[in-house]
Input
Amino acid sequence: MPALSREVAQGWIARWDRQQEGYLPDREERFTALIDAVEAGAGRPDPLVLDLGCGPGSLAARLLDRLPDATVVAIDADPLLLALGRACHDGRSGLRFEDLDLRAAGWASGLRLDRPVDVAVSTTALHWLSEAGLRTMFAELSLVLRPGGLFLNGDHLDVEDVSPALAKIEHAIYDRATRRRFTEGMPEDWRQWWAAVDADPILSGLHAERERRVAAAHHGSESGNLSTHVTALRGAGFAEIGTLWQNGNNRLLAAVRP
Ligand SMILES: C[S@@+](CC[C@H](N)C(=O)[O-])C[C@H]1O[C@@H](n2cnc3c(N)ncnc32)[C@H](O)[C@@H]1O
Output
């Protein structure tokens, strides 16, 4: 089997970014707002940042482009996406990838950190966790995030359970933004991207490992409601919880650890 080169990984990550934009026409704008918030809120020019559910490292790379003195520990449980990130960013100063399941108690100690974390960031990932998984994740995060540390989560989070009329309008804003952005047709979707990966012989071993993990993972319900995230954050002792940026139901949810 041919090795996964940096060039091949770069190609798959560029295709991943296009695919993700199909779900998030304002993905780059949200990355920018999130990194602005890190810059404004980290309290130092060389923050230690965790990227939770990093995928192939799209956010981590953009963050280091803007804040080259930062250290980013990028965490995911998908062996194929991690392999793409590692191959693409091999040797990049300030970045390492960790293969850990955020739902599992003990993931924070698996990071072997030598100083407290200043900021934890995440994009389009934490809605995959169930309510119980979110509680575990935040409890673990509290063990390593410094007092005054920031949590920043960019994701589609709905208000349907508390404000159905506003939820409808938020969805309509998202639909209109998507139609305006992709006048010549939508990019490939998530399933098409994964099918294409499956057909690449360079990635077939990693894809088989991924399938094995997905089958064993027993993913429960997801947490798509804003209220679920806010309640889990409060339960883990986070304070000053609020939205820093929003476009329809696409939000940047922030919280501070007291
Ligand atoms: C839609 S992707 C987003 C990836 C990346 N943050 C981005 O914005 O491109 C969701 C990511 O969350 C990761 N993820 C989901 N559940 C996870 C868990 N329990 N532990 C670690 N990563 C998880 C997936 O493996 C996947 O890489």
Observations:
- The radius of gyration is 18 Å.
- Strands lie at 48-52, 71-76, 95-99, 117-123, 145-156, 239-247, 250-256.
- DSSP finds nine helices and seven strands in the chain.
- The chain has a mean pLDDT of 96.
